[in-house]
## 1
Amino acid sequence: MFTGIIEEIGKVLKFERHENNAVLTVECKKILDGIKIGDSISVNGVCQTVVKFDNTSFSAELSKQTLDVTNFSSLKTGEFVNLERALTPSSRMGGHIVQGHVDKTAELLKTEKLDEFYNMYFETDETRLIVPKGSIAVDGISLTVADVNDTCFEIAVIPHTYQNTNLQYLKIGDTVNVETDILGRYVEKFLSPNDNKSNITMEFLAENGYV
């Protein structure tokens, strides 16, 4: 479990792709403090298990499922990734509950700079669990949704978040990993247990205090 408050920007040292899996090695420093084999680390919002580490990097094994659902299949050596260690019982909950179980990817459509702040627009094929003023994790970063329609969502990014995550390196057309708020997932499941159609509407969310 994570909070979406990024601790460090890491750099991809090596990405070894095999037929049905891959091995990712990330250069980092801060998150290596106290690390053990088997620990969970969020890499761009994807929960990964440490299988090897040294004084300057750690490695994780990626399953075919991870490669199919996330943007990891397009990772390249030298790219920057967001890193966060798993929660401990004494950790402050600074963002929202982020499981590291990515729902889908989204594509950056536009970035607007407003003084030191930024508005970023992302296109995705599924927005039913994304609501205005709700929480969302983009590449593992806990963010608030500014606006949403049927095909895209907007986030407003403060200077600190922009400067301390890989959002600063994103270019138009780049893909990001998206994890919707766990609350919305459970609400949808309870309302539609026998099919895949969502019964959630903006009216329902407003009436029940979610927006």
## 2
Amino acid sequence: MNKSQFSAGGVVYKNTASGIEIVILTRNGGKVFCLPKGKIEGSETPEQAALREIREETGLTGAIEEELGPIKYRFNSEEDGVRVNKTVTFFLVKYISGSTNDHDTDAEEVRWLLLSEALKIMTYPSERKIAENAQDRLQKRT
């Protein structure tokens, strides 16, 4: 049996003197470096879910600027062994306020990294492509 699951997340960025920085989370004992994301709940839109998950997982608030696109993958649910077809829609999110010290327990560590550095350590190739897409769009603005 298969089920579908829909999530949303974002590439949260800010411009600094050193360049564009994005937020990366660590999970699984510091072995996984990923973007903030989570399940769409109830009647939430993907945009609302992305901003909520970013706030919960990173302690930051931001403003969605544009959609970066979806990624799709499959996994076996640990709860019931069911095959899950997951779609995550990502957005480009400009940092407004907040501190990465205020993240929830879903993330072990939350940190700002130069986008070029984040691309080198991101665990999932599909999320790396989303971050590269964000980089391309941000560079076209300058």
## 3
Amino acid sequence: MTESRTRSRRMLLLLVALFFLPLALAFAAYYSGWRPAGNTNHGELLQPIRQLPALSQSLEGKWALAWVGDGACDTDCQTALVFARQTRLSLAADTVRVNWVLLATDRCCNREYLDAAHKGIVAIDASAQRDALLAVLPTKDLPQSLFVIDPLGNIVLRFDVRQNPRGLLEDMKKLLKLSHIG
């Protein structure tokens, strides 16, 4: 009978350990400050999130893929706008939740090119707010940057258009899936 009791006690201690050991490890990891090193976004998450300056035409209410620069629309602009348009169209049913935007800081806008190649783009003359707009944006590789703007007017993500476009598409799908606004 003692051997049976000992075996039962070992089994009980093993079951208790199987339950409490992972819990104890999780508490230890959490309170020691350990966090997983990986991230799943492809673009650059802007920390802290920056508020878009008030523009004459509001972008609030929808997500936006925005390019910021000269409205004459040089090669960098054209590449970025095609990239944004194709990403937006690839969102399928969520296309209606996303605008694609040209924020022209000067010489707004090359209407002939925009009407021919980008029907439906929102072109905003931001030249009056140029300094305020450029102050909140990261200046690194600005001509090759697309910015993701949330429905509340926050600039949340920067994506380099020289990267694989699938990265931006995956980031947008994830944002739209998790978002309860816009």
